[in-house]
Amino acid sequence: MARTAFRDPNRDFGMDISTVIGLILAVGLVLGAIMTTTSITTFIDIPSILVVIGGTIAATLIAFPLNRVFKLVSVFMKTIFNKPANSLENMSAIVSLAEIARRDGILSLESHLADGKFDDFLTRGLRMAIDGQEPGVIESAMELELESLIERHANGKAILDTVGKYAPAFGMIGTLIGLVVMLQNMEDASQLGPAMAVALITTFYGSCVANMVALPLADKLALRSAEEVSSKVMIIRGVMCIQAGDNPRIVKQKLLAFLDPKQRVAAEELET
Predict the structure, then answer these.
(1) Among candidate residues 27, 94, 86, the one with its CA nearest the CA of residue 224
(2) Please, which residues have CB within 8 angstroms of residue 241's CB and are 6 or more apart in sequence?
(3) Of the segments 87-91, 139-143, 254-258, which one has the largest average pLDDT value?
C-alpha cells in the first residue's frame, strides 16, 4: 500500500488569505468611496466612535462573562490563522492504519502512534481501541469530545454575532442623540445640514463594524467549525472501523462520503 507523508499537525497553521483580502478590500472600498467624494476627516467624529465602540463593548460585557469577552482577540485571530482540517490526509492515515491493524493486529498500532505524526483526535481514539475498550465506550468518549468542541466553537461565534447585533443598534442610538441635540438648536438653519451629517455618522460606524468585520468573521468561524466537525466525525467512523477489523477497502469506501469531489479523485489514487 502506498504510504502518505503525514505532516505534523502542530505545523499545519497558516494564514487564511481570503479573510485578509476581504477585510482589506472592504475597508479599502469604503475609504476609496469616501475620499473620492469628500475629505476623510468628514467621517471622523470622536463622540460617535465612543458611542458605537464603547456601547458595543459594554453590551458584550453584559451579555457574556468577562473571561469569554477577553477571548475576542483570540477568536478574531482564529479567522485569520487556523489549523485547517485535512480530511484527505486523515482518511489516508486511517486506511493505512486499518491495513496495519488487519495484517498485524490492532496492538501493533501502538508503535505507529508513538511518533505523533497522526491527528491527536485519531490517536486518542485508537489508543482506547488498543487498550481494549468496548466499541460503545470509544464512540461515546469521542462523540463527547466532539460535542465539547462544537460548544467551544459556538461560544466564539456567539461573541462575534453579538458584536454584529449591537454595533448597528448603538449606531442608531448615537444618531438619535445627535438628532435630539440638533432639534434643540434649530435657530441657525445653516447648521442643520452639518449637524444631521454628524448624527448619521454613528449609524455608519455601527453598520461598518457589523457588516465589514463582526458578521463576516462569525460566518468564517462557522465554516471552519463545520469543516473540523466533519473531519472529526470521519475520524470517529474510521476508528470504529479499525476497532471492528474492517477490510481497508471497505474502510476507504465508508470514509469517501466525507470528502468533496476533488478530494475523492485524489483519494481514489491511493492504493489499497
Answers:
(1) 86
(2) 94, 98, 250, 251, 254
(3) 139-143
What does 161-182 look like in DSSP terms, one character per residue? HHHHHHHHHHHHHHHHHHHHHH
Backbone angles phi, psi at 14, to 5 degrees: -155, 170
Give whole-number Cα distances, 182 to 20, 51, 85, 149, 168, in Å.
39, 17, 54, 50, 21
Answer whether 112's CB lies under 8 Å from 20's CB: no
Instruction: List the beta bridge partners of residue 65.
Output: none
Which of the 8 DSSP states describes residue 4? Answer: P
Three-state secondary structure readout of 7-48: CCHHHCCEECHHHHHHHHHHHHHHHHHHHCCCCHHHHCCHHH
- Is this prediction's pTM over 0.85? no
Contact 195, 182 (CB under 8 A): yes
Judge residue 166's burial from the number of C-beta atoms within 10 Å of its C-beta, 0-12 exposed, 13-18 middle, 19 or more buried: buried
The closest of 245, 71, 250, 267 to 157, measured between CA atoms, is 71
